Amino acid sequence: MIPVKLDQLFLSNMGFVVLLKGADERALPIFIGAAEAQSIALRLGGVAVPRPMTHDLMKNLLDFMECRLKRVEVCDVVEGTFIGKLVIERDGAEMDLDTRPSDAIALALRCAAPIFVAEKVMDEAGRVFTAEETAGETVLQGEAPKHAKKLTPLEALEKELERAIREEKYEIAARLRDEIKKIKGKGSDN
Asked: How many domains are contained in the chain?
């Protein structure tokens, strides 16, 4: 297993992408959903939400059950789909739970757990990215490539709201609108 760090979270023309980077400069790009990108961006940005989001709830549940998230792993790639697992410890015993890598990353950030990628996954899907390859992408967190506009978590949510409305995904738009209102409301209280 290769230890990795979340290097970037950005919005490409094909959707949200997280880049997990190892020490050898190879990065593993994983496309993730809007909800997971929002959860990751809010955590990385240090934005406190008034009510627990799904990944906050998962962490609270682990804490309540006296479990510890030891690590998360991106352990396989099958037909272009990444397979993840949570390694949880309780009373000295470890157990593995199948998960999407995006959920595993969001939870790892909340639990300060390390992230690992299997050697075979990095060999198959990892690569070194040049600045030109990521130029023009909208970076939500991490090191911004050349020509990229870095967004705050609030700006990222607003951009995603515009996209949801444009694509007529009104349920998602309503949820994003509510999150934006909560964040803006918290900022005006200070």
From this structure: 1
Q: Which residues contact 67 (CB under 8 A, 6 or more apart)?
A: 88, 89, 90
What is the model's pLDDT at position 181?
78
CA 94 – CA 58 distance, rounded (Å): 17
**Per-residue pLDDT tens digits for 50-66:** 888 889 899 999 999 99
Q: Residue 149: give the domain boundaries.
A: 2-189
d(CA 159, CA 151): 9
Which residue in this structure is represented by tokens 């515009």? 162
111-133 pLDDT, tens digit each: 999 999 999 999 988 888 765 55
Q: What distance in Å separates the CA atoms of residue 35 and residue 54, rounded to the nearest whole number? A: 10
For the domain that residue 39 is a member of, what is the CATH number?
3.10.690.10
